[in-house]
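Q: I'm writing up a methods section and want to include an example of the input and output format. Could you take the sequence below and give the corresponding predicted C-alpha cells, formatted cleanly so I can copy it straight into the document?
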Amino acid sequence: MKKNKTYYTLYGLNNVLPVLMSNQCSNLKVDIVKGSKTGGNKNLIQILKEKKTFFSLIDKNIFRKKYLESRNYGIAISFNYDLVKKSIPNKFIKNNVCFLVLDQVKDPQNFGQIIRTAECSGIDGIIYSKHNSAPITNVVLQVSQGAFFNMPIYEVVNVKNEIKKMKNIGFWSIGIENSLNASNWFDIDYKEKTIIVFGSEGRGIREKVLEICDFKATIEMQGKINSLNVSASVSAILFERLRQLKRIN
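A: Here is the clean output for your methods example:
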C-alpha cells in the first residue's frame, strides 16, 4: 500500500506547535501575520529558531489571500508527513488492545474529531476503508488538533477482510448500530482485545460488515431524534471502554 505523502497545511497555534515538536515532518514552512498576537509569541519564535524552521512574517491581507480557509488564525504551517501506516500489526504486548474501524465515514469533520477522541481515550489505532470514505485532508488533520501524530491510521481496501484477519488472532468485533437486536452499549465488555466498528453517517455499518461482528451494541436515544452524530457515538463508546478499564486497575 502506498503511503500518503500529501503536503498538508494547518492553521492556528494548537495545530502548528504539535507539528513543530513532532520531529516527524519535513519541508516545514510557516507564515505568520505581521504584528499579530501570534507573531509576538516569544515561545513560538524561540521554537522556530531552535528547530531551524523557515518562517515568514507577512501582511494580514496577503495572508488572507494566500490562505482562503484560514479564518483568523494568524499562522499557517505547511509540511510533508507520511500519515497512513503500511500494515496493521499482528502481534500485541497488552491484552486490552483496541482498534477502531470506520466503515465509509464520509465527513472530514467527523473523521478528524474521531481521531482526536480516539487518541484521548487510549485507542491503539484506526482502520478506515479506502473507498467511499473521507480521505486524509487538511480539514481532517485540522480538526484532530495534532492527535494524528499519536494515532496509528491504516487505510485498507476491504474492511471486512481486515476484521476477519484480526478475529483470527484473537480479537472480538463489536458493531455499533441502531438495532432492536443490539445490546445496550454499556452492557458490552470492551476490556479484551476488541475491534469497535462504526458505520457511515447515513447508512450505518454495511450489512456484509455487520454480519461478521461478534456483538452488536446500540446507544438508546431518549429524545425525538433517533441517532447520534457518528463522532458523538464514538466518544460515548470509547469513554465507556476507558471507564471499564479504569475499574479493573
